[in-house]
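Re: the request from the purification team.
They wanted to know what the chain is likely to look like in 3D before they choose a buffer screen. I agreed to run a prediction and write the result into the notebook, where they can find it.
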Amino acid sequence: MIIFLYGPDSYRLKQNSHVVLDNFRKKHPGGVFFGFDLSEHGEIEKVEDAVKSGSLFGEVKLLVLRNIFSNKVSSDRMGELIKTQNLLKEKDTVLLLVENQEERELAKNRTLFNLLAGKGNVVRNVKYLEGEKLVKWIKDEFVLRKCSIEQEAIKELIATAGNESWALINEIDKLCNFKIGGVVKKEDVVILGSKKTDLNIFNFVDAIAGKNKARAYEILFKEIQNNRDPYYLLTMIVYGFRGLLTVKDLSDREMSLDSIVKKSRLHPFVAKKTYQSAVKFNLTELKNIYRHLLDLDTRSKEGTLNLVDSLFSFVLS
């Protein structure tokens, strides 16, 4: 049996995987549980052993597999294993595959994606919520924490944190700890909320890191039009590429994504996005870009260049 959970909304993806695990433990109290990170060296061999090994008492096995798309060799071997061991129909071995990526990224390995997302499998794309679905999810999270929230406060919360679930959960936890069983009002969100003023900045750095020149130029143009300080823009770009350097270095050492998150101390969402962008560069290229950015910083402070023009040149280079 195949359960395939994927999508960009990392916190809700985690929630969904926990639901599957809880249901498995209730349905199969004597079942056997394994967890594997396919981005780790040698993990695919362990998965093969776990699948092929027999059970003394006929327990149902649940294998939780993460980052199966991160390594083509492992991906191909996993696809063959599913076919040769007939895991699409095998009821005593359950595969829970969890991928914190959007479909367009996973579909680059079209053969494996089609196999996992095929008819008969349990498949869920955990996208970012919007509209009434987002409002309901927020209300439910407050109820779980024995709090409630007024409708106007929900609007302010979404305006503050957006619809990225990790950011929302951080704000929800903060507000519930503040009210402790009470009702959260709009003024509470205004006082305690962390304004999402840097959304475009994050998208800007992400576009540059992703080598999307058109998108980077569009965001930069709008930021300059809105009187954003060019020195601030440069600082954010430097920060973004410092993160890319860190993540790329750790990735080249064959660390798993979970290990990279812990080692880099980046927010899980930021680390994931940075990890996806880092694959588009080699380490030498990132070092050269970082040196160039530091040179821009030095020369702009010396007054030997126009920083706005230099930023436009950078995103188009």
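For the purification team: The chain has a mean pLDDT of 84.
Please add any questions underneath this entry.
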